[in-house]
Amino acid sequence: MSVLEALRGGVIVSVQAEGGSPLNAPEAIALLARVAAANGAAGVRAEGLARLGAVRRAVDIPIVGIVKRQYDGFAPYITATEREIAEVVAAGAEIVAFDATGRPRPGGWDDAAMVGAIHARGALAMADCATADDVRRAAAAGADVTATTLCGYTKATRGTELPALDLVRACAATGRFAVCEGGVGTPAAVRSAFAAGAQAVVVGTAITNVDVLVRRFTSATS
């Protein structure tokens, strides 16, 4: 079975933690990935070379990998250059997700160059998009997967109601593997995403961001 077929119709659990959280350690992220796999997740999404490596050793389901790194003067920070692509693939992820918002990247690479570098290393390319134009441009550049990940997180899309079901429909219309990611907080939202044409759905904060979940409850005491 191919990687995308393994993900089709399933939930991908984003096993990431806040930077200062005790859960951000590789062994903790790997444990979250094991819990996700044991309870039916079709795949996991994880960040960072050490954490990705720990997740790869912990589970045998597909991994969507990213490396977050800020570059002065540039907005994209999700797998923004060839350096991050190399790190994600070296860690064992089958899919490399990258910022496909069209904003300038360090080094000046366009979507086609990013996709080409990912394919050259034997991995699949997942375009994290914010708008329908991003989706169409990424699909034309050869991305294997288009996703709604960055809708609501760019200046032009801030305030968009999430999950971005209209953008899911735009992803599905390209014929590429369509993923809904961002703002999926309930099982009902998962069902809505599939009804809109998603072929897989990413759920993160609602499952694995324990720091946020605890704060939601402790804030009710004040």
TrEMBL record:
<dbReference type="GO" id="GO:0047465">
    <property type="term" value="F:N-acylglucosamine-6-phosphate 2-epimerase activity"/>
</dbReference>
<keyword id="KW-0119">Carbohydrate metabolism</keyword>
<keyword id="KW-0413">Isomerase</keyword>
<comment type="similarity">
    <text>Belongs to the NanE family.</text>
</comment>
<dbReference type="GO" id="GO:0005829">
    <property type="term" value="C:cytosol"/>
</dbReference>
<protein>
    <recommendedName>
        <fullName>N-acylglucosamine-6-phosphate 2-epimerase</fullName>
        <ecNumber>5.1.3.9</ecNumber>
    </recommendedName>
</protein>
<dbReference type="Pfam" id="PF04131">
    <property type="entry name" value="NanE"/>
</dbReference>
<dbReference type="InterPro" id="IPR007260">
    <property type="entry name" value="NanE"/>
</dbReference>
<dbReference type="InterPro" id="IPR013785">
    <property type="entry name" value="Aldolase_TIM"/>
</dbReference>
<comment type="pathway">
    <text>Amino-sugar metabolism; N-acetylneuraminate degradation; D-fructose 6-phosphate from N-acetylneuraminate: step 3/5.</text>
</comment>
<dbReference type="GO" id="GO:0006053">
    <property type="term" value="P:N-acetylmannosamine catabolic process"/>
</dbReference>
<dbReference type="GO" id="GO:0019262">
    <property type="term" value="P:N-acetylneuraminate catabolic process"/>
</dbReference>
<dbReference type="InterPro" id="IPR011060">
    <property type="entry name" value="RibuloseP-bd_barrel"/>
</dbReference>
<comment type="function">
    <text>Converts N-acetylmannosamine-6-phosphate (ManNAc-6-P) to N-acetylglucosamine-6-phosphate (GlcNAc-6-P).</text>
</comment>
